[in-house]
Amino acid sequence: MLKKLLLAALLIVFGISAVNAQLTKAQIDKMSRIEYKIKMNGDAIVGVRADGKPNNFGLPSVSSYLKSVTTSPKMKPDWDLTATFTPIGCSSIYDLCSNGSPVTIWQDPSTPDNIHIVVVHAPLGDGTTFPTRRSKYYFSSDRGTTWTFISDVPSNIKSGFPTINGTSDGNALIANHCQDGTSYQITNVYVDAFPGVGSFTHLYPPGANSTTTQPIWPRVLTTTNVSLTNKFLILASQNGIDSSHKIINTGMGSTPGTWGPWSYFAGDQAETYGLARGSDGRIGVVYKNNDANNPESYADVWFMESTDNGNTFTTPLKIFDCNFATDSLGPVRGVGIVYAGTSPKVVFETIKQTTEGSFYPGLPAKIRFWSPILPGSDPNKSVVIADTTMVGYHPYVGVNDVMSSMSRPNIGVSADGNVLFAVFQVPSDYVGGVTDTTTFMDMYFTLSGNGGATWKRPMKINPETPIKDWRYPSISLWNDNSSTMYYANINVLSGNMPGSYVNGSGNGESAEPYVFVRLAIPLSSVSVNQVSNEVPSNFSLSQNYPNPFNPTTNIKFAVSKAGLVSLKVYDLSGKEITTLVNENMSVGTYEYKFNASNLSSGIYFYTLSANGFTETKKMMLIK
């Protein structure tokens, strides 16, 4: 299946010839320890070397790919999926899609066939000031098989950094920030009249864009029902003010809407924050701290929650403490949040940095996960779900869009609430660019079937060839599933040139296409967790626990020789009820979480078969 995934290459012509040059480990080691600082490039962030030297480190100019050295082998996941890649029909030379972890795709829970995407677009020939930069809205009514361009939002004003959510009646809610021909930029919010129609009502601001209060870089969320007084919530920040992030939640009483005052919290600017809603309507906010008045809290992660549709929030809870006395790993840009039922689930990057605001994009980084269900106490509950032991160590070099060796995670949940998905970026083994020599990015994906307590080994999900720059993956907060298959819906930029033209124009303009990626994950990949990779002395099947059970139980088994393994369930008459596992598995010890919610009470048998070994045990379901 993995071969099928890797062969499912997106057929975009990219004529380029390879060279057989190679970076040395000494070069990689030197480049990985160079310090960067974050600056603004218009409304985009850029990483610049603290020593003032060019970002390309004096690498030789290349007209093709340059194979680099990594310090860890590639790791093969112990699970499987199938990926389908569909261009949505849009490309852009403005290819810095987000300053953080983007939120650009929304699948409608009430009508799963409907998937909505919003992207930033600037055409070829738009130069480096991008006067015709627009936010474009695309719609699919067949779960991403085909896509239709609906409209620019808005149609006649320069806009950027769009984000999307949806109303309870299935209409797209899009926010971005716009420039109306003056020096003013401000968050704007629009809601469609019907799904996929493109008849947008301008909700915010209630007047002209020209105002002294200019919050930009928004995240937007709807409350549970458009009939509520409080319908929408905006999260945004001001350029250059690192302690004035703003949050707003009021009702849209009439067109263009009535809105309450902004409130403040000490976060970081430019999309280092996220919004999500629980099944009971509670609203969660996660953000990276950047309190200049409190260096001890720099680069920490905080969470707060509202149970009254955003009128009030709990006192912020620190869920991660960046410890500058130890590894100094903390978030620089990427944070994401979703709810599984009423439980918040958060992912964030942790990158080597300093209290002065510098970071090291070439050093090893980690992706972490937090939820209140994890053991321990805050701010020490979070767990690592990706590091160099799982994906290898791949340093990031070149045009710096404030990336690192692991960055910009996003998180989503399955429709039944049982599975969490996380997607993030990892530098590949290839660099390119004639002038601005830069690392190509890969896209990695992982999942958890137990609320985030354990996670699968991350899998690279983009094709091996042609080499592309897979950046800014955004996963729908809600994702459909069937009784046998889970799906994850992703919008991603698949660049021809590595790094952004926004921050590195030396290689010239390139129309970078947006791609919709639909992942199909079989139930066995979700339910089977490898608990040990040590080689067992024999095949074995353990007694399920708990037993009796209602409605879930765990079945542990050992595989002493790689090969085809099947695990099946039978009723008392010997009739096969379901196949839990039927796939090639590597050696190790595994555990399957069996959900029998669709079965009636009674005695059942489960049988493990592998390499001539067969064993059967009895279990009892009591409802």
Describe this structure in words.
By secondary structure, the chain is mainly β. 4% of the residues lie in helices and 44% in strands. It has four helices and 42 strands. The strands form ten sheets. Strands 3, 27, 28, 29, 30 and 32 form a six-stranded mixed beta sheet that branches. Strands 21, 22, 23, 25 and 26 form a five-stranded antiparallel beta sheet that branches. A four-stranded antiparallel beta sheet has the order 4-34-33-31. The model is unreliable at 1-22, 62-69, 242-246 and 248-255 (pLDDT under 50).
Question: What's a concise summary of this model?
Answer:
The chain is mainly beta and 623 residues long. It is built from four helices and 42 strands.
Please summarize the sheet with the most strands: 6 strands, mixed
Number of helices: 4
How many β-strand runs?
42
Q: What is the first-to-last residue Cα distance? A: 37 Å
Structural class comes to mainly beta
Average pLDDT, rounded to a whole number, is: 86
Uncertain stretches:
1-22, 62-69, 242-246, 248-255
In helices, the fraction of residues equals under 10%
Q: What is the radius of gyration?
A: 24 Å
Which outline best applies? globular
Give the percentage of residues in beta strands. 35-45%
